[in-house]
Recover the amino acids of this structure.
């Protein structure tokens, strides 16, 4: 398996634009997580899905952020409109009924 | 109540030395304590984990020591190598791995 695949690896956009980050979890995993990493706040859990259903989105910073998981092999995190303070590395991770999380390589987002 | 405090923020160790990273938590409901290792440009990867029913777990050169009464746990890296240079995160969880709370991270540099 290729592991958790995220795209794009880097995204540079201007304030106000819509940004969509994509994630393909490891085949067979039934939990998917979106994390955000910044120097100031470290690793923060934004939302997690179990069997494609959002279970806890209490970490989503505000209504500008939304996440979907239309099927077991794909998830998106959307920011609309984007702001400079959204600049961070966004990680997707997946697991199978257990506690070992497998992280993707992340998307480096820069909002100018 | 959810916070996990990690120290030090950065650590420099000579090759062959022992690296020690400490974490403390408040929430007594936490029942799973993993350590993740992150190299630049990569997502975190599970290194080793412990549950509170044991006081120590060793895997190769990596050892977790756990002190339940003090609500503290630590990572020891024996015979540290330059290849161990990375950022290390402790974490804690109480919901089968679905609500990991990460420490702030420790940037380790092992000098040749």
């Amino acid at each position: 398996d290729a592991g958790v695949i995220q795209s794009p690896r880097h995204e540079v956009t201007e304030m106000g634009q819509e940004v969509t980050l994509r994630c393909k979890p490891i085949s067979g995993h039934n939990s998917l997580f979106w994390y955000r990493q910044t120097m100031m706040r470290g690793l923060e859990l934004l939302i997690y899905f179990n069997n494609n259903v959002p279970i806890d989105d209490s970490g989503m910073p505000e209504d500008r952020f939304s996440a979907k998981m239309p099927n077991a092999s794909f998830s998106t995190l959307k920011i609309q409109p984007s702001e400079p303070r959204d600049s961070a590395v966004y990680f997707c991770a997946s697991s199978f009924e257990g506690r070992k999380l497998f992280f993707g390589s992340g998307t480096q987002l820069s909002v100018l | 109540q959810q916070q996990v405090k990690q120290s030090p923020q950065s650590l420099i160790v000579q090759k062959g030395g022992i690296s020690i990273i400490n974490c403390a938590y408040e929430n007594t409901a936490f029942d799973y304590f993993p350590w993740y290792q992150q190299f630049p440009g990569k997502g975190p990867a599970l290194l080793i984990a412990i549950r509170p029913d044991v006081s120590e777990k060793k895997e190769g050169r990596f050892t977790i020591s756990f002190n339940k009464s003090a609500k503290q746990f630590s990572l020891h890296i024996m015979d540290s190598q330059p290849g161990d240079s990375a950022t290390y995160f402790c974490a804690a969880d109480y919901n089968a791995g679905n609500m990991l709370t990460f420490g702030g991270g420790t940037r380790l540099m092992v000098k040749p």
Remarks:
- The interface with chain A takes residues 32, 34, 41-46, 49, 89, 93, 96-105 of chain B (CB under 8 Å).
